[in-house]
Amino acid sequence: MLKKTVALLLCLAMVFTLCLAGCGQADSSAPADSSADTDAASTDTASTEAEAAEGDATEAEATDASATADEPEGTYKAVIAATPFSGMVLHYIADYCGFYEDEGVEVTMEYVNDFNSLLESVNKGAINIGTTYGTAGPLIDMANGHDTTIFAGYMLQGCMPILAKEGTVWNGVEDLLGKTVTSRGGGGSGNAPIYRALLDLGHDPMTEVNWMHGVDQTVALEMGAKGEADYVVGTTGIQTTAKDFGLVPVAFLSDLQPEYSCCRIWALTDWLNENQETVDRLLRAWIRAEEVLETDRDLAVQLTVENTDLNQEYVEGFEKDPHWMVNLDPHWKGVSTYAATLMEVGILPEWSNDELAKHFNCEMYKQALDECAEKYGSENPDFYAKYQASYEEANADYLANYANQ
Prior knowledge:
Blueprint: H1 4-13, H2 18-24, H3 48-52, E1 76-82, H4 89-96, H5 99-103, E2 105-111, H6 115-124, E3 129-130, H7 136-143, E4 148-153, E5 155-157, E6 161-165, E7 180-182, H8 192-200, E8 210-212, H9 217-226, E9 231-233, H10 239-242, E10 247-252, H11 253-256, E11 264-268, H12 269-274, H13 276-295, H14 297-307, H15 312-319, E12 325-326, H16 332-344, H17 353-357, H18 363-376, H19 381-394, H20 396-401
């Protein structure tokens, strides 16, 4: 977190810019540059450039960022993690605009490349919260007995393209049948929207498609260019790099399944229970940042570029794309559908919604949303009305059948 004096100097320097306007009060008349999006892109957003720098990403050390229980007011702290491939724009906005300071919470960011490394740091107490590590990873981990809880969301839709050679005609998801298709995740768990679409059409997506899982994105793009793969399932934003290989998006995962739950925000259940005030303050800061994101996409791009190794063209390629959707709601509908799909194709062990519900909490988000609406709602009533309504729709089944277990 920026020191208070640095933040003040920065705000003064930018006082006449559009950026400051975005932070001061989100202009409800300014349209968002892209509609909400994103599937828990299980580390969705790896550019060739970012992957090259992957080895430089810093893994949190337990001695540097130990998890702490709630402390007296003014010392609420959390350590969050994100991949270096896409960063976490709500954190950048909340920090830059002073929302963390307003809400009385101190947040430290650590960049960790992959889910397994993150789990190790979380278990050591070095990191409290995972943000951009997909939906499948947390679900599989929970089903295997790790007591973590999804309590918020990040990308509801990732900007994840299905790439093919320029000139390829796309008739729909059944075009993948019998074809060679690469994907980045080792077990193919990030392809749930494709599986769901094919299952709904009566196909077996695991046997009727020639999958090549765990293929590095640069290698996959080369395979697509050489004709060694018919289609490449890309990570968020990779279409910007793919054009250099003669590959273009023929569809996006969110075209096949809108609001599919790209990446969810989660923490150890014990830590959540012991730090509810910290989480409430954190969520309030992120909700306010989400409002800025929707009204000032240029600022979002600027801050992501400044805080990651991604260039502006790459960041604009996903943060200004209408397929990319950020939504802090934990979104039971998206999570439970994702889990059901992975169970149906044999990636996730058989697991009931009763069990899944023990690792899901939407009430923390709702409390923070209500508090923000009461305090800041007059600044942008449409924003808060939209997310109050979407909360009821996305979590209706959970609230009716599982919330009071």
